[in-house]
Automatic annotation (TrEMBL):
The name this protein goes by in its record: Inositol polyphosphate-related phosphatase domain-containing protein
Gene3D superfamilies: 2.60.40.2840, Endonuclease/exonuclease/phosphatase (3.60.10.10)
One Gene Ontology MF term: phosphatidylinositol-4,5-bisphosphate 5-phosphatase activity
InterPro entries: Endo/exonu/phosph_ase_sf, IP5, IPPc, SKICH
GO terms, biological process: phosphatidylinositol dephosphorylation
Family: Belongs to the inositol 1,4,5-trisphosphate 5-phosphatase type II family.
Top-level lineage group: Eukaryota
Signal peptide: none
Ranges for domain Inositol polyphosphate-related phosphatase: 2-309
GO CC annotation terms, alphabetical: cytoplasm; plasma membrane; ruffle
UniProt cross-references to Pfam families, sorted A to Z: Exo_endo_phos2, SKICH
Length: 450
């Protein structure tokens, strides 16, 4: 494929719950849309973070993730969510891309109280898709007009501190594509001496462009102090902070400002014979949401990804000059007819490519229409449940690649009936995760002969 469509949303929810319909936030309509995003990347700040909420969120999705997943679950899989107190980042993918996604990893940085507290900071998720590497960052930086220096320090602490466990892309800006969003809390420059009422009158006149000239974020980008590695389309929407909760009206306790932002970076020439590119399709706020003193901001992008290896070979390019081709499952399961809910159950798989196995590799049992990679019913580590069989595939592949493995699940949870499938997860000691194979759907039922 040539293009991927990515949809981003950032929203400081002010400890509120999702009591408004989130369809507009996700640009979901009842009309059939052939241009659905391939990935949804959703960032939230100030998600309710009392101890009891944090405990529940370790067991279940928080209300914001749950609500978004309910709206997307027919077509999308939740790849990963990451929470740091009130900071939350969630990535969804169209189901059809699941076996083309590799090395999902995450990082976080606390910047509150000199790095001791996670009320401010950043959470990040990185992944590879069709061979391209992408990093998503959701940040909540220091607040208040006069704390510009602290915001700059927060940014630089995040880019220095975060280190992923994928060697080629261990730092945020080593990735092919970087998208950075959040409540970055940049205000209007202090030298702009107008009060909130005067600024609102300027907004009413739709004099957005001249007001944006005093934006703190754009000022530090020009000076090279922070965010200068990134690009941002000029917002043509009014400042997204500060509003009276429950209303579309500005709260004059603070000067209006563009706190909520989405920026990006593309390393266009990371590879020979391939030019990476970002096209931004939209950048807008959503004033109908009144759950907090911020308005959410969304953006949609198309990113270029290389053509599959087979097409590029027609142009006589060396394989090492192009991206990996993940169009086939690395793990192929034999067809499973059915399992017994009360007995020992087996499955068989082959590797289609040589892979580096880890003691952390595992196979999970998932219900039909599962909506997240964390929704396994039960699992077994490959090192404990899989053994080579004597059967050979009879193919021309290397013998090591064509071995068949037997998988044994000794018992299943109670009342495990319905349609299920198996997913093979490659996982490193550092919890970098890839899905390498998916079985067919098969029924689990009670053996009537028992």
């Amino acid at each position: 494929m040539d293009n991927l469509r990515l949809y981003f949303s950032t929203y400081n929810v002010g400890t509120s719950t999702p009591d408004q319909d989130l369809r507009e936030l996700l640009s979901i309509s009842d009309k059939k849309n052939e241009n659905r995003p391939d990935l949804f990347v959703l960032g939230f700040q100030e998600v309710k973070a009392q101890p009891q909420n944090m405990l529940l969120d370790t067991l279940f999705d928080d209300p914001w993730t749950y609500t978004c997943k309910e709206l997307l679950q027919c077509d999308y899989i939740k790849l990963k969510s990451l929470r740091l107190q009130g900071l939350l980042l969630v990535v969804f993918s169209l189901k059809k891309h699941l076996l083309n996604i590799r090395e999902i990893d995450s990082e976080y940085t606390r910047t509150g109280l000199a790095g001791m507290w996670g009320n401010k900071g950043a959470v990040s998720i990185r992944l590879g898709i069709y061979g391209c590497s992408i990093c998503f960052v959701n940040a909540h930086l220091s607040a208040h007009d006069d704390h510009l220096k602290d915001r700059v320090e927060d940014y630089n602490s995040i880019i220095q501190d975060q280190e992923f466990h994928v060697a080629e892309t261990s730092k945020i800006f080593y990735h092919d594509y970087v998208f950075w969003m959040g409540d970055l809390n940049f205000r209007l420059l202090e030298e702009y001496d107008k009060n909130p009422e005067e600024i609102e009158r300027q907004i009413v006149k739709k004099d957005i462009k001249s007001l944006f000239e005093y934006d703190q974020l754009r000022a530090v980008m020009k000076k090279g102090e922070a965010f200068s590695e990134l690009t941002e389309q000029d917002p043509d929407f009014p400042p997204t902070f500060k509003f009276s909760v429950g209303t579309p009206c500005y709260d004059h306790k603070r000067r209006p400002a563009w706190c909520d932002r989405i920026l990006y970076r593309v390393n266009s020439n990371n590879y020979e014979n391939v030019t990476l590119k970002v096209d931004q399709l939209s950048y807008k706020s959503h004033p109908n949401y009144v759950l907090s003193d911020h308005k959410p901001v969304t953006a949609e992008f198309i990113i270029k990804v290389p053509q599959p290896v087979l097409k590029l070979r027609m142009h006589s390019l060396a394989v090492d000059q192009v991206f990996s081709d993940y169009s086939e499952s690395v793990i192929e399961f034999d067809k499973i007819n059915s399992w017994d809910e009360e007995g020992e159950n087996k499955a068989y798989y082959r590797r289609t490519k040589e892979i580096r196995e880890s003691a952390e590799d595992w196979i999970g049992l998932f219900k039909e229409n599962f909506a997240g990679l964390d929704e396994y019913v039960t699992y077994e580590y490959v090192s404990k449940c899989a053994t080579p069989t004597d059967e050979s595939s009879g193919s021309s592949k290397k013998p090591e690649d064509s071995k068949k493995y037997e998988v044994v699940f000794p018992d299943l949870p109670n009342r495990c009936r319905g349609n299920y499938c198996l997913l093979y997860f490659s996982q490193t000691e550092d919890k970098v995760t890839s899905v390498l194979g998916i079985s067919n759907l098969f029924p689990i039922m009670k053996n009537e002969s028992d």
